[in-house]
Design a protein that fits this description.
The protein has 191 residues and is of the alpha/beta class. It has five helices and five strands; from the N terminus they run E-H-H-E-H-E-H-E-H-E. The mean pLDDT is 92.
Length: 191
């Protein structure tokens, strides 16, 4: 099975370098253009199924892709939501001096989903869809933070346990082959 993972286009919060998390913000004009470019790159792929985050920025990105795939079945799944940032949501990234993607960091922000929690959520999602699908090509439209965890699912956790250097750009397309997984182990998720 081949997984095509698309991060949403630039959002209004991306412009101001705000921690968006699960805030339901829309794409900018640039984000819509980026989504269109991704849609054109994917127009000739024969997808069997699509999973999408229920947040508007992901839906707007998917909307551009669906112009070329009007019969594609779409499933909106809460496990594809962006990371929950709790009280850090809507605040400038520069307000936080700790590395929010270091697995062994204790976060001083109330309500923030830990790195291990997002990795577990992504693992549960992919284990389920890989086990229960006979699809050959699956499209997933979601978020940058989630993309870090998706990268770890397929390529393993960095030895440093720091996911901050794993970056998926706006409207970037990542391609993963489920036959070539260097999966995380339960030991990787322990602090």
């Amino acid at each position: 099975m081949i997984i095509y993972y698309v991060r949403h286009g630039q959002s209004t919060d991306n412009v101001y370098d705000l921690i968006t998390g699960r805030n339901d913000v829309a794409l900018t004009e640039k984000g819509i253009e980026q989504a269109q470019v991704s849609a054109e790159l994917l127009k000739d792929i024969d997808f069997d199924k699509c999973y999408c985050s229920p947040l508007i920025r992901a839906k707007q990105t998917l909307e551009k892709i669906l112009k070329y795939h009007s019969n594609l079945k779409v499933v909106y799944d809460d496990r594809l939501l962006e990371r929950e940032y709790g009280e850090a949501s809507s605040r400038p990234s520069k307000d936080f001096t700790f590395n929010r993607w270091q697995m062994d960091t204790i976060f001083p922000v109330k309500g923030m989903e830990t790195v291990n929690e997002i990795l577990k959520r992504v693992t549960d999602f992919f284990d389920e869809i890989i086990k229960n699908n006979d699809c050959k090509k699956i499209l997933i439209v979601a978020h940058g933070g989630l993309g870090r965890a998706v990268n770890c699912y397929f390529n393993g956790i960095p030895q440093s346990r720091d996911l901050s250097k794993i970056v998926t750009g706006n409207a970037e397309i990542l391609i993963f082959d489920t036959e070539k997984i260097t999966k995380m182990r339960d030991d990787d998720l322990k602090m």
